Amino acid sequence: MKRREFIQQTTAATALVGLGGFGLQSFSSSPKKITILHTNDVHSHIDPFGPQDGRNPNQGGVARRASLIEGIRAENPNTLLLDAGDIFQGTPYFNYYGGELEFKLMSMLKYDAATIGNHDFDNGLEGLYAQLPHAKFDFVSANYDFSNTIMDTHTKPYKIFIKNGIKIGVFGLGIQLAGLVDKNMYKETVYLNPVEIAQDMSRILKENEKCDLIICLSHLGYNYRNNSEKPSDLSLAAATKDIDLIIGGHTHTFLKKPTVVKNSIDKNVLVNQVGCFGINLGKIDFYFDSAKNKSSEGVSILV
Amino acid sequence: MNFKNLFLILGLLLAMSCKTQKDVSKIEGKNININDSLQSITSIENFIKPYRENINRDLDSILAYSVDTYSKSDGHLNTAIGNLMADVIYEEADPVFFKRTGAHIDFVLMNHGGIRSIISKGPISKRTAFELMPFENSIVVSKLPGANVKELLDYLAKAKRAHPISKLKIVLDKDGYLAESSVNQVPIDFNKTYYVATNDYLINGGDGMDFFKGSEAVYVLDYKIRNALIDYFMKTDTINPVADDRFIQLTD
């Protein structure tokens, strides 16, 4: 409650400053811009690939990603930085330090939230739990029920951010663990149907929390052409409503640009994924106008 | 009501108007490549450095020497590198298994695809083990009935791939059918059960090795394949593996 009060007061103060500085006009006419930056499946790739690498020479690297993000934040402080899971496993940094360095660096880069990928269970629930003190960001996961595990209370189904008066809801979804991860690693973690959970989440975030922007951080995978039953980001987008952006992972899909999908009520959803190993950074800018300005022309999507 | 209060009310009204849901008017999306055109942030680089140096120091400390370069594509039905890997699994895992169960491993079966790199001539380090086995797979032992051992042999006869084996000997006739099979020079008895060491990927049916589904029991050794390799390299001065007659096909 205290926190909510504080936020309201802050909003009021901001509005007053706006009134003093620019007058009433500027409040309704200048669109607000929210920037969403995202990574997925970085898989402990902290160093860039070397010049001799056969596939990705001179690409990636956390210290370079940091400068890219810093530049974008300087341009627009109303930026969120998110990760769609599989932070762990892939280089000796993980084998030697168990994810400590990955979490510490993500904290230094000021990640706002991440979801949990299947490889984040590679050292078991205990291995993930042990590294949590190094993460200064939250884990969102709506369809893993950790109640009967050591991870209980250490993840949230969703998190709400307020940037420049825009309310942003971010919820997380994980992939089915049975058959993919050793049971000893995920123990009593219960996997819940991601489509049903996404429907619940988007309703809660839209109707109860009154979010202006709803983002799903998903580790389900982009698309399964030969297995249409298996939940994927594309099928999730089509089966839900009120989600604005699905940030995906797991399938290491290098999308040239975000995919636009029609949701269950024929509105556009963006689905994006940036491959793996910290080679690319996704950047989605949302511009908000007052309702009056918007209604005539609809949403223009430039991808 | 004084001027200050009026101002506050006006502010609150504005704040409330901000709290109604807002609509997106425009979206721009792109994916940005991270490459050497970007400057690294020095403080981040300096933070990583001690971790990197510590890992490299450990990974590159020399454990053994290899007299030659070995690749999994060197041979047809058995290769020097595959024989080395399977023999190492036997040598390192059998004492662990014996200590736990009082029984010995009869033979080892791994998969050809599980050898993820070559071994280069010269120094061998922990890095070599990480390259050979970058995954976290670990050693398990299956108590496998003779009928399933028969399926295992048929699988190998049909695959005609150098899936690494140890302590097992297989001879195919010139038509590719199973002619002989033995463990420690004793012909395989399909009425007996055998203790077969493999990895946790294959035991779950990986590479189509469905015969492991017939396992009467599975013993998890909590011993990673990579660690078995490292343990072996640490106590071995020079490696000099050879392709031999453990899996052959008769020519006439």
UniProtKB/TrEMBL annotation, chain A:
Residues 35-253 form the Calcineurin-like phosphoesterase domain. One of its GO terms (molecular function) is nucleotide binding. It holds the Pfam family Metallophos. It comes from the Bacteria. Keywords: Hydrolase, Nucleotide-binding. One of its GO terms (biological process) is nucleotide catabolic process. CDD domains: MPP_UshA_N_like. PANTHER family: 5'-NUCLEOTIDASE, 5'-NUCLEOTIDASE-RELATED. Belongs to the 5'-nucleotidase family. This is Metallophosphatase.
UniProtKB/TrEMBL annotation, chain B:
One of its GO terms (biological process) is nucleotide catabolic process. One of its GO terms (molecular function) is hydrolase activity. Residues 73-213 form the 5'-Nucleotidase C-terminal domain. Pfam families: 5_nucleotid_C (PF02872). InterPro entries: 5'-Nucleotdase_C, 5'-Nucleotdase_C_sf, 5_nucleotidase/apyrase. GO terms for cellular component: outer membrane-bounded periplasmic space. PANTHER family: 5'-NUCLEOTIDASE, 5'-NUCLEOTIDASE-RELATED. This is 5'-nucleotidase C-terminal domain-containing protein.
